Amino acid sequence: MEEKEFVIVRSRRRRGHPVDNGKSSGLLRYARNDILRMSKKFKNRFKFKGPKLSLHDETKKGISAVLLFALALITTLSAFGAAGEAGNFLYKYLSLLFGWGYFLVPLSLILGGVAILKSLHEELYGTPFWGIFLFLVSFLGVLQMFLGSRIENGHGGGYLGVAIVYPFLKFLGVYASYIILIALIFVSLLVSFNISLKKLADFIFDRGRKKGKEFMKSAESVKAEGGGAIDSFMQKIMPTPSFKVKNLGVADKDGQPAPENKETKEERKVKKDEMFLLQSKMTMADYKFPPIELLEPDSGEPTSGDIKANANIIKRTLQHFGIEVEMAEVNIGPTVTQYTFRPAQGVKLSKITTLHNDLSLALAAHPIRIEAPIPGRSLVGIELPNKTAMKVRLKNLIEQPDFAQNHKMLTIALGRDVAGMPVYAGLEKMPHMLIAGATGTGKTICLNSIITSLLYRQAPNFLKLILIDPKRVEFPIYNGLPHLLTPVIVDAEKMVNALRWAVAEMERRFEILSAVQARDIVSYNKKFVDNEIDEPLPYIVIIVDELADLMASHGREVEATVVRLAQMSRAVGIHLVLATQRPSVEVITGLIKANITSRVAFQVASQIDSRTILDGAGADKLLGNGDMLFLSGDVAKPRRVQGTFVADKEVKKVVEFLAKQNTAADFTNDITQARTAQGAIFGGGSDSSGDDDLYNEA
């Protein structure tokens, strides 16, 4: 019965007769569904089967921007009668509509196109367009205020201006209308650029201060002599050593380092003057330092990729997990690019660090490193590998004034940080250094950079070197240096003897300092400058290329010697630089790590190895090829640095020059001779400076 009634309803609908709704509402529902199915079949039967036009969102945005630019150009040409009849028609009616504000039409179209192009890699929001619309309306109102409510074709703000101004004049009057319309113009600018009033004011004031400083500098250079003006001009045209630092629109006042006080600068100047005086008196008159031309300069620049896109991905990924951030500056370094941001109030930093893998997936970059927070700044940094890295050459770091004018006696050039700024360290302040990392990550090149930096810094009578090379292939290139106390040591037994000699030399120097009542080597050498003593004490740097081999063959004795030197030798000018490719607790023991606080970690295989070196993770996220974390004794968190690169041929040129131009090394014969272990290390029994024939026979 129901099927028969359903057929009747369909037939009555086809003939245009009304259906009795009193029967049942279900019949009408069945009829409506049947009609929808029939219409779908009809559409599918006559559906266009040609190729579909599928465009990416970026392509669509690009097309829209091109059309807006073209329309802006046409409206501009129409104002000069250069767009034909259609252009004349367009100009006639648009000038009636906008009046004197006709020029705002092409300007608004151009701004709209620029807004679309800036959002190619991100979501397009309507905020800039609302700002442009508000600016157009308020500016037309201001133009019409010159005519009041009168309508003159092509004048004032046109018909739109009259429509805007009329209610203002009627209810607010002339002066209040001016105030409201001008305020709306400022509001439209803030909306268009999505910037706060405070940031806009800070930007204007900062620009003003910068211009004022530039004007004062230029005035001073004009007053100065010609040579000073030339130096100032050369500084402006020469490329700066640091890389580009881009800002994403957030002024970071909290991140600026604290200004140095006057006392610190004065103390630094005094130390610098004392250092130069000491060096000038201690340096041999006939000694020739190696020329800088022996080293090779930097070549090329790093490529960081799409900075805007990466910053937007970081922000959107964190927002997806409920973390609101404000992007700050971007620092482009030689190996990595650091994106900094300020999290919102109440966000735990641990919540950001746990998103390491999610950010790595979103950015399609591995490995990435999160620094939360950046030391000394209220920011969090995310470090991404560059598309192409740049080698940091030693020449460019040695040429910097910070290296030549540094008040530290044993200044070494480590590399450049994530912002591209040079990183230097004073070995006498560390006072010892531990270098560890996997094979092939840059340890030996780092040691070569340290040695070469010292050679460019000090003369042989100011600095002495003891080079220990268990691998026998890294340091023999330095044989012939006038700075060596002994030829490069490659025998394990002689290495241990050299460490024993260092302990004996340390005790001998303490007796010398005690005799003249000097607190350390610096105060002792000052007495030489003041002609109170006859000879100064040179610094001694002991460099071990592979500590693991020594620990394997003479573990307890080497550990005891190293610990004693690390504890006491700083005051007498003896410093250790230890390197190993096996960062395990058997090699880097707790006693060694406790007494050597300055450490350099290159890439390692696991987080456990990183904790062994730095007492924290991070080295397992490095990239290799000189990428390292530098932990100084006076800083709690490690600093990421791209280490300097010096080729073997550069080292060879420097060594050959020093060996050829200067006198040969004055070797100390008893350094590698056998000594009484107890006397040398523990200070008991026999004379630490003598040899034990019975010990040799045994």
Number of strands: 15
Q: Biggest β-sheet, characterized?
A: 10 strands, mixed
What spatial form do the alpha-carbon principal axes imply? elongated
Radius of gyration: 38 Å
Name the CATH superfamily assignment of the largest domain. Answer: P-loop containing nucleotide triphosphate hydrolases
Mean pLDDT across residues:
78
Q: Which bin fits the share of residues in helices? A: 40-55%
| Category by helix and strand content | alpha/beta
Strand content range: 5-15%
- What is the CATH topology assignment of the largest domain? Rossmann fold
For the record, the CATH class of the largest domain is Alpha Beta
User: In CATH terms, what is the architecture of the largest domain?
Assistant: 3-Layer(aba) Sandwich
Distance between the termini: 121 Å
Number of domains: 5
Low-confidence stretches: 1-15, 219-263, 677-695
The total count of helices amounts to: 25
Polypeptide structure, described:
The chain has 698 residues and is of the alpha/beta class. The protein folds into five domains: 2-40, no CATH class; 57-194, no CATH class; 201-230; 307-385, Threonyl-tRNA Synthetase, Chain A, domain 2 (2-Layer Sandwich); 408-697, Rossmann fold (3-Layer(aba) Sandwich), CATH 3.40.50.300. Helices cover 49% and strands 12% of the residues. It is built from 25 helices and 15 strands. It has helices at 2-14, 25-45, 57-79, 84-98, 104-118, 127-145, 158-171, 174-193, 197-223, 226-237, 262-282, 307-320, 349-353, 356-363, 394-398, 401-404, 443-455, 492-516, 521-529, 547-568, 590-595, 607-614, 648-661, 677-682, 693-697; strands at 245-247, 325-332, 336-343, 369-371, 380-385, 392-393, 411-417, 422-426, 433-436, 463-468, 539-544, 574-580, 598-601, 627-631, 639-645. Strand 4 and strand 5 form a beta hairpin. The radius of gyration is 38 Å and the shape is elongated.
